Amino acid sequence: MMWIALALVVWAAGWGLNIWLANRGESRLVRIAVPVIFGLTLLAMWEALVRGFGVSPVILPPPSVVAQTFAASTDILWTDFRQTVLKGALRGFLIGCAAAFTAAILIDRSSFLTRGLLPIGNFVAALPIVGIAPILVGWFGFDWQSKAAVVVVMVFFPMLVNTVQGLAEASAMQRDLMRTYAASYWQTLWRLRLPAAMPFVFNGLKIASTLALIGAIVAEYFGSPTRGMGFRISTGVGSLSIDLVWAEIAVAALAGTAFYGTVAFIERIVTFWHPSQRG
Amino acid sequence: MRSALPVLTVLAVIVGIWYLAVAPMNVRVALDQAERAGAQIVPEGSVPRREVSVWTLMLRNSDHVAEGYALERPRLPTPAQVGQELWKTTGAMIAKGRPWSKRGLIYHGWITLQSTLWGFALGTLLGIAGAVAIVYSRTAQLSLMPWAIISQTIPIVALAPMIIVLSSQIGVEGRGLPKAIISAYLCFFPVLVGMVKGLRAPQPAQLDLLRTYNANGLQSFLRLRLPASVPYLFTSLKVGIAAALVGTIVGELPTGAISGLGARILIGDQFGTPLAIWSALFAAAVLAGALVTVLDVVQRITLKRMGLV
Q: Using CB atoms within 10 A of its CB, is residue B194 exposed (0-12), middle (13-18) or buried (19+)?
């Protein structure tokens, strides 16, 4: 009973603090503090409710236990992180995005191809492409190559569609101006159209960054060497080491957020001129 | 319709490349099979052949390349084989009068569709509720919005097995609910973002006008903000339903489900029947296309009747 009451008190206190903070203006500190307090409140409630209802740690461990497991098994988590994120997801992400970017620039030269590929690309980008994971694991073997291949296929179309749309972003007036400067195709591309396309390109990169981790983890469910986050999660659920599974989930969450955050950070630097970055 | 010809051309090129790729992908399997049937293959034996590139193999054994197009368990099936398998598991089932047979894709597609629609409904509700909270409460905006973004960067597939373990421990029978939760998780975000934009679409002058009419908060919500958000809502619903389908299939893949399109992919992998995987993939693509098209039609009709188009 104590714990449940405590959970409610924590919730009320956290939310109250946030209301107080939110009404104090628009400072940078408030913007960071409020979501952090919200997250901490949720964690504290999770801890208190799990203890309050006496939930078995085999079903749902409290965050403190997960944190202990996390600290105790950093070497396993690091091996898995390297296998899944650095080898599978990141390489696939780089190859897929580079291929899609190059393809977009090539396609863009022909309006016929653009009109043909955009609808197909849009459609394919909405499909559950993760389903090809077992096929690609069969083709490329169990190691990181098959994971990277799944990621390449998953990120290719969202990235392609966004880049092609971005390349069409520079207005006719701006292109005419470049022509009056006697700029060549490549000069126009480099000085005008690629910079104008960057907000779209980064939109594609952000979508791809979240897809990359999903692809790499799902592919591991279909066969992997005895390391990797997907492998550890699927075997952990089977062998009831749920706290380790939650630690892997925490790593996946941190890696996903860091990945997305890095892309967003580079976007801020590259597209500093865009209205959405100046606000 | 201006783009019909380019789209068809690109599709034709893709199918052409696919057909060309079948030969090198399948040549090793085809040669193994031909050798077992007693044909002369250069070089002999599948182990020495591993050292030779597929192109050399195709050149030296050009008589047997065609057999790669008719394998029972190909590494890469031809589009025609996939089409036949799709027909065998859908149309032919109906023709035989057993459309709901568990060996047909109609049954599995229906299972997936159910979870997708439940997840879509749940995710849309959550997204709209979250958007309303964010638009009306600064506290909610500051606390929820960053977490909504972070939630999408967390790979849900990592959580999927846990959601299934948890819901089975709580006593939820079947896999319908956990799958719906996973698809709602992927579906709520586009709806939330679209609705926040839509509910904020009315200009200050319009809101001021309603204030001069002495409209209260609920009235200005129902008469102005909600109608103004409808175009945004439909755009995000189309993204949302595709995401919900992805979520359902992801929910079926790693969890040992036995029915649903994702389960067909899983079972096809375990039993080594690539045709089952490919036909399930294409069935999922057809389902995604159909769902988005339905929403598109509803959008057109609604916007027309609201006088927005």
A: buried
